[in-house]
Structure formats: C-alpha cells, structure tokens
Amino acid sequence: xxxxxxxxxxxxxxxxxxxxxxxxxxxxxxxxxxxxxxxxxxxxxxxxxxxxxxxxxxxxxxxxxxxxxxxxxxxxxxxxxxxxxxxxxxxxxxxxxxxxx
Length: 101
Prior knowledge:
The chain has about 100 residues and is mainly α. The chain has helices at about 1-25, 30-50, 55-70, 75-100.
C-alpha cells in the first residue's frame, strides 16, 4: 500500500503546484472562477474514472472536492465526510493488523 500513498502524494503535490503557479497570477474573481472550473473538471474526470478501469476516479473526485471545499459548504461537508470515513477505515485496518490470530 506504500506505492498507493506515494501516488496520492504525487497527485496532491502536482495539483498544488499547478494551483499555486496559476492562481497567484489571477485576480480574486479569476481565482474563484479558476477554482470552480478546475474543481468541477476534476470531479467530472473522477466520475468518468469510476466507469473506466484505467483511471482511479476517487483520486480525482477527492482533488476536486478539496478545491471546491474552499468555496462551497456542500463540498466542504462531503470532503470532511470522506476524510472522516478514511480515518475510520485506516484505524480499523491498524486495529485489525495489531490483533494476534
């Protein structure tokens, strides 16, 4: 599972680099429009990725929700819910691996 974590970190780092180098050159309204377009585009790619076996749709959906969570209360709630579910799953996996058989 370490390779999956590295891929996720790479996607996050690349997304942050693109956002940082593109958003800073825009006006505040331009930044808002850029965030909405990029967030919705990533969510759309993620939905398509749910049906295409090559793409990992959940990665794109999470990136889109992370971008939109700054501007939308609904996206923030969904993103927080996904993070909470991920933390619970990670904790269950750790607890399961610690139990002796």
